Amino acid sequence: MSLPFHDLLTYALGCDVPEHFSARLFQLEGKWDETFRTLLDELACEFRPDLVRWEISVVDGRLHERRLAPPLQYSEVSPR
C-alpha cells in the first residue's frame, strides 16, 4: 500500500499545502537527498503507523524495535 505524498507533506509541514506544490515536489523525487528521504520516511511512520510492520523484542530488560518492511512507497495522488 502506498501513502499519498500530498497527505504526508501536509502532515510534515503542519499546514495546508497546495496540490500543485506537492505534485511538483513529487516529480523531483529523483533529486531528493538522503536526509530528505530519511525525514519523510520517519514522518510517514509517525503519520501512518498502520502501514509499517515492526518486530518488538525485549533483551536484557530493554525494549528493541526493528522495522521489517522496506521504506514506504508514496503515490502522487490523494484519494478524495
Question: How does this structure look, described?
Answer:
By secondary structure, the chain is of the alpha+beta class. It is 40% helix and 22% strand. It is built from three helices and four strands. It has helices at residues 5-13, 19-27, 34-47, and strands at 2-4, 54-59, 62-67, 73-75. The strands form two sheets. It has a two-stranded parallel ribbon with strand order 1-4. Strands 2-3 form a two-stranded antiparallel ribbon. Strand 2 and strand 3 (62-67) form a beta hairpin. The protein is elongated and about 50 Å long. The two termini are 16 Å apart.
What structural class do you assign from the helix and strand content? alpha+beta
Structure annotation, total helices:
3
What is the beta-strand fraction?
15-25%
The poorly predicted ranges are: none
Main sheet attributes: strand count, strand direction, barrel closure: 2 strands, parallel
**Amino-to-carboxy terminus distance:** 16 Å
Tell me, rounded to a whole number, the average pLDDT.
86
- Please give the order of strands in the largest beta sheet: 1-4
Count of beta strands: 4
**Element-by-element helix/strand order:** EHHHEEE
Radius of gyration: 15 Å
Apparent shape: elongated
Itemize the secondary structure elements and their pairings.
Layout: E1 2-4, H1 5-13, H2 19-27, H3 34-47, E2 54-59, E3 62-67, E4 73-75
Parallel strand pairs: 1-4
Antiparallel strand pairs: 2-3
Helix pairs in contact: 1-3
